[in-house]
């Protein structure tokens, strides 16, 4: 039987928090198998909600840290002795501190494993927030709007390829691991969902992240135009004297070329 968010659980889904509670046992089991949690893992769950995913995770882990903004749900979660509850907006959470605390409590150094059914209305800001701690992370498994996952894993020269694709593919190897229909949630969202696996590259190309982000944002600001109309002007304002093919549209440029351009600009700025 699917749980009623306003009935037996006594909690009504709140639109301002983007709450859609996962309730399909088969989907929950598939996600847990994809995550493959092991006892002793340093795991953090974002947005545990009614603990549909939390419960099978903690059974395998022994202990789990959860981040929950809704104070009523946070109070429910605190009743579970195996949970450490961080009641906060995830965009304010220092994942570096969580990683350090978890690793210090382990017999051997460990990196964070981050999971969650992310609020769809702020999923992109959360992904960018986590970027700064990618070197402290083993992997990330997130439920997101399917359209967002398609943008994350998109290849160049495709309609879905954009700023999110470039920034995340620079730092992570990513895989669309599971599609999830609206009927798997209470209340059902109006969009299809998907689970993505993100594994940080062990040795990402060194780059000024803020510069790369600005460069990519300028490039995709008018994606139907050739880059000479957007990125070309921006490069000229920075006195860039190198060679970069601006007779292309933004979606035609591979991630590696954007990174190389940012590296060249960063070197020029430092010279």
Automatic annotation (TrEMBL):
Which HAMAP family does the UniProt record give? 16SrRNA_methyltr_A
Which EC number(s) does UniProt give?
2.1.1.182
The reaction(s) this protein catalyses: adenosine(1518)/adenosine(1519) in 16S rRNA + 4 S-adenosyl-L-methionine = N(6)-dimethyladenosine(1518)/N(6)-dimethyladenosine(1519) in 16S rRNA + 4 S-adenosyl-L-homocysteine + 4 H(+)
Q: What does this protein do?
A: Specifically dimethylates two adjacent adenosines (A1518 and A1519) in the loop of a conserved hairpin near the 3'-end of 16S rRNA in the 30S particle. May play a critical role in biogenesis of 30S subunits.
What Pfam families does this protein's entry cite?
RrnaAD
Binding residues for S-adenosyl-L-methionine, per the UniProt record? 20, 22, 47, 68, 89, 117
Q: What's the main place this protein lives?
A: cytoplasm
Keyword Phosphoprotein annotated: no
User: Listed GO cellular component terms?
Assistant: cytosol
Q: Write one Gene Ontology MF term.
A: 16S rRNA (adenine(1518)-N(6)/adenine(1519)-N(6))-dimethyltransferase activity
Which protein are we looking at?
Ribosomal RNA small subunit methyltransferase A
InterPro entries recorded: KsgA/Erm (IPR001737), rRNA_Ade_diMease-like_C (IPR023165), rRNA_Ade_Mease_Trfase_CS (IPR020596), rRNA_Ade_methylase_Trfase_N (IPR020598), rRNA_adenine_dimethylase (IPR011530), SAM-dependent_MTases_sf (IPR029063)
Q: Which UniProt keywords apply?
A: Cytoplasm, Methyltransferase, RNA-binding, rRNA processing, S-adenosyl-L-methionine, Transferase
Q: Does the keyword Acetylation apply?
A: no
Q: Where in the cell is it found?
A: Cytoplasm
Specify the Ribosomal RNA adenine methylase transferase N-terminal domain's residue ranges.
27-202
Tell me which family the UniProt entry assigns to this protein: Belongs to the class I-like SAM-binding methyltransferase superfamily. rRNA adenine N(6)-methyltransferase family. RsmA subfamily.
């Amino acid at each position: 039987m699917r749980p009623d968010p306003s009935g037996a659980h006594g909690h009504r889904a709140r639109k301002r928090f983007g709450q859609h509670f996962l309730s399909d046992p088969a989907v929950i089991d598939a996600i847990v198998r994809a995550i493959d949690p092991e006892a002793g893992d340093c795991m953090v769950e974002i947005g545990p909600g009614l603990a549909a995913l939390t419960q099978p995770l903690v059974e395998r882990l022994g202990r789990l840290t959860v981040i929950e903004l809704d104070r009523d749900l946070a109070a429910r979660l605190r009743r579970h002795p195996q949970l450490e509850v961080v009641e906060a907006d995830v965009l304010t959470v220092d994942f570096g501190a969580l990683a350090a605390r978890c690793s210090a409590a382990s017999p051997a150094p460990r990196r964070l494993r981050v999971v969650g059914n992310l609020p769809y209305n702020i999923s992109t800001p959360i992904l960018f927030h986590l970027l700064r701690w990618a070197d402290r992370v083993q992997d990330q498994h997130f439920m997101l709007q399917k359209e967002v996952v398609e943008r994350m894993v998109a290849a160049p020269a495709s309609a879905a390829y954009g700023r999110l694709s470039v920034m995340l593919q620079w730092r992570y190897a990513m895989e669309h691991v599971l599609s999830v229909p609206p009927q798997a949630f209470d209340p059902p969202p109006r969009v299809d969902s998907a689970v993505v696996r993100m594994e940080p590259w062990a040795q990402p190309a060194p780059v000024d992240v803020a510069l790369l982000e600005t460069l990519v944002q300028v490039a995709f600001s008018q994606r139907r135009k050739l880059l000479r109309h957007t990125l070309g002007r921006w490069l000229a304002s920075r006195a860039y004297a190198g060679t970069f093919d601006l007779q292309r549209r933004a979606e035609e440029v591979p991630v590696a070329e954007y990174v190389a351009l940012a590296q060249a600009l960063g070197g020029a700025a430092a010279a």
